[in-house]
Amino acid sequence: FCTPCLQECLKPKKPVCGVCRSTLSPGSRALDLEKQIETTETACNGCNKKMYLSKMRSHAASCSKYQNYIMEGVKAVTKEPLHNTRNFPNRFTFPCPYCSEKNFDQEGLVEHCKTLHSTDAKQVVCPICASMPWGDPNYRSANFMEHLQRRHRFSYDTFVDYDADEDDMMAQVLMRSLRDK
């Protein structure tokens, strides 16, 4: 994780995991994982130099061949930006489907609903899912709170390129996996 993203997850009010957003228990270090990082050897994808995982980040920052490797990947998935931005759905802020309070980010909506609407059994449309290309704006979740807990523990933006179709993404993944061998 980059420092700003990690710091966001470690805010004092509610430290959470950077991937699944589960609450972190304070003060517990994963010593077994630290040891594994210190003793597992790998090779740089740029220059093929072997080193321990614990040294990889500092090596990657100074390895020009690794930087070129990363830029190849960025070029492979970067597309020309579309000029008409008015037709893009808002995937950054959402209204509460229960009380219509507006402008929650995904994490904020989940927290708001857990705090104020955890016992509300009304079937509602998930505003996060409805904003997705595959989302159905008419689908009402039978158990919205369960849906939030299971489906929105992480942000789709981290894992999804909304502008690429599935065939393009699969081709890119396959090409990248062949180059990584």
List keywords for this structure.
Di19_Zn-bd; two-stranded antiparallel sheet; ligase activity; 181 residues; 43% helix; 4 strands; transferase; Znf_RING/FYVE/PHD; two-stranded antiparallel ribbon; 8 helices; mainly alpha
Describe this structure in words.
By secondary structure, this protein is mainly alpha-helical. Among the domains are: 39-79, no CATH class; 106-153, no CATH class. It has 8 helices and 4 strands. It has helices at 3-9, 31-39, 53-62, 64-77, 106-116, 127-130, 144-151, 166-180; strands spanning 41-43, 50-52, 124-125, 140-141. The chain has a two-stranded antiparallel sheet with strand order 1-2. A two-stranded antiparallel ribbon has the order 3-4. Strand 1 (41-43) and strand 2 form a beta hairpin. The chain is globular and about 55 Å long. It starts with a helix and ends with a helix. The mean pLDDT is 81.
Structural class: mainly alpha
Runs with pLDDT <50, length 5+?
none
What multimeric state do the chains show? single chain
Number of distinct helices: 8
Strand order of the biggest β-sheet: 1-2
Indicate the overall shape: globular
Estimate what percentage of residues fall within beta strands: 5-15%
Integer-rounded radius of gyration: 20 Å
How far the N terminus sits from the C terminus, by CA atoms, comes to: 24 Å
Q: How can the largest sheet be summarized?
A: 2 strands, antiparallel
Q: What share of the residues lie within helices? A: 40-55%
- H/E element order: HHEEHHHEHEHH
Strand count: 4
Q: Could you tell me the mean pLDDT?
A: 81
